[in-house]
Amino acid sequence: MMNKRIALGAFLIVLIGMLSACDALTGNTVAKADKDTAKKTISKDSKSASKQSANKESKSPAKKSSSPKKEATAKNAAKKSTGGKASLAQPNQKAVKTSASATPSKKSSSSKSSGNSIKKENLPPQLDAPDVAILQDSGLNNNLIDLFSVAKDDQLSSSKLSFSLSSQSNPSVVSCSIDFGRYIDCTPQDGKIGYSQLKVAVSDGKLSYSDLLVVSVIGKEAPEEIQQENEEENEGNSTNSPPVISPISDQTASVGQPFVLNTHPGDSDNDILSISDNSPLFSISSQGTISFTPAPGQEGTHTITVTVSDGKASVSRTFRMTILPFQQQLVQPAPNNVPIIAPIPNQVSTVGIPFSLQVSASDPDGTPISYFDDASFFTIDRQTGVIAFTPEDDEAGTYAITITASDGKASSQTSFSLRIDPEADDPGQNFQPFIGNIPVQIAWIGEEYAYEVPASDPEGDTLEFSDNTGLFSIEPSTGEIEFTPTIAQQGRHRITVTVSDGINQVSREFSLLVLEKELPPGVPV
Q1: DSSP state of 507
Q2: What pLDDT score does 6 carry?
Q3: Beta carbons within 10 angstroms of residue 309's beta carbon
Q4: CB neighbours of 38 closer than 8 A, spacing ≥ 6?
Q5: Which pTM does this prediction carry?
Q6: I need a surface site. Which of 26, 373, 409, 449 has the fewest CB within 10 A?
């Protein structure tokens, strides 16, 4: 019985071994088949992903697998053959990365197409300021040029533009500034004649443009000389005056950026002018305007000569133009705005009593302001703008005071009258009356001229006015001047007006120009 059991056990062991061998053989075959299926699936996925990456216009995503069941079978077979580790994860991840590489191509294409939108081009503002002339020793000439009236922009009104004085030549002859952000004011230096070239910039906040103008300081006899020349011409004098053209400073332009420059030609004989240049970059217009946009290949420095001729005589100006490459376009600095100083009403003080006044000014750019005065008996605080002093006995009287506020680049001025009364215990002392500054006056032939002489008296005494001219008779009690000039009175006249309070008197001299309404081109006013 025991032997039978042993024999049966041995048989079962052999049978189990045979079955195990069959299972192992079958499992290897299935795993091999599943691996082949998985490889085919991966190859198909990779090809689909590559095809999607190459075809940017295709909207359908690449197929991950043609048969989800086969992919699952492949994963199961891999798990069996590797002991449960997903050995197919690496190929599948690689296939996903290859497919994702197509995404940036679509974004790039979309971005490229959206960049084709067209925006309206912003053109630089324009400025055409005229040349002006002022008389020697004429003091402050206010509001010579209103920049609002000579500037324009394609998108903004002139009042929205900002102006700055970029440079000025010959400040020893005449000093100029921009007042209230729009007016050019100039003051000739004592005893000087000559000219100064101003470079004025206008900006719309993004683009800017600069224009050149000339301020001439003419001698006291210049208007009479001009009158004589006109009379000689009317008498048939054939002497030809050569044309004129403003000095031209060296210029800088950039490839692709519009460039405009006015040369301001003129002729005192009113001859027809022809204007030419020696440059292949552009052709100057018949009005003397250079306008062009530099193109690639024109980079570098060019020497340019502009010539203006009246058919009998000619004059030329030579300057250098530097054209920068497109990558080196100039970044325009923010324009400087002039300080704004508040008006100061007339002031009254008394000898021996402390006097104090706060001058108020501000700068649109936030730049610190320095204050200056032209008085001889006090000094304004440079940083705070405070005037503080105690008048002395010999300072009694009435004074015209000018205060200047400067940001280091531009300045503004305001004037007021300061009357210093004597001490109360000295009622018998009399002080002379005061006549304010009288700028150069212009009267037009055939048109009524009227002007009131600015005068006052510290004690409020009644004043009497008189003059030294035969052109008119000043109103003795009011200081009013009224008359209509005739052709015989044309020219320049030096007028002296005198005002008296019955005890003391004071005089003031000023220039009066009697002119025709229509002046030949090139004749300064």
Answers
A1: E
A2: 61
A3: 19
A4: 70, 71, 73, 74, 75, 77, 78, 88
A5: 0.27
A6: 26
